[in-house]
Automatic annotation (TrEMBL):
Keywords for the protein's UniProt record, in alphabetical order: Transferase
Keyword Lyase: no
One Pfam match: Acetyltransf_CG
Lineage, broadest ranks: Bacteria, Pseudomonadati, Pseudomonadota, Gammaproteobacteria, Lysobacterales
Native source organism of the sequence: Stenotrophomonas rhizophila
Protein name in the entry: N-acetyltransferase
């Protein structure tokens, strides 16, 4: 399981490649982003941040790390959950990853 420590944050984002998940444990709570890979496409299926740690940018950080991974692997991205779709609408720097 690979991990990435976001700059200035007190948690690591881990990539659980076997379970197709990015995750971060913050103050004892597990936040996650699940995905599937189909035909060179990363389909982001679910993001979840428990209420006690909501509003701290954790979902955004999970999504950024997932998108960085997609770019490195030359995957296109399909946002199949509401959070990922909204995130990608707000961040045009990832437009090149979207399936058109």
């Amino acid at each position: 399981m690979a991990s990435v420590t976001p700059p200035g944050l007190a948690y690591e984002v881990e990539h659980d490649l076997a379970n197709h998940r990015f995750q971060a444990r913050v103050k004892g709570h597990l936040a996650l982003l699940d995905y599937q890979i189909k035909r060179k496409r990363m389909i982001i299926t679910h993001t979840e941040v428990p209420e006690p740690i909501a509003g701290r940018g954790v979902a955004g950080e999970l999504t950024k790390v997932a998108l960085r991974y997609a770019r490195e692997q030359k995957f296109k991205v399909v946002p199949a959950c509401a959070y990922a779709e909204a995130f990608l609408q707000r961040h045009e720097e990832y437009d090149d990853l979207l399936v058109r």
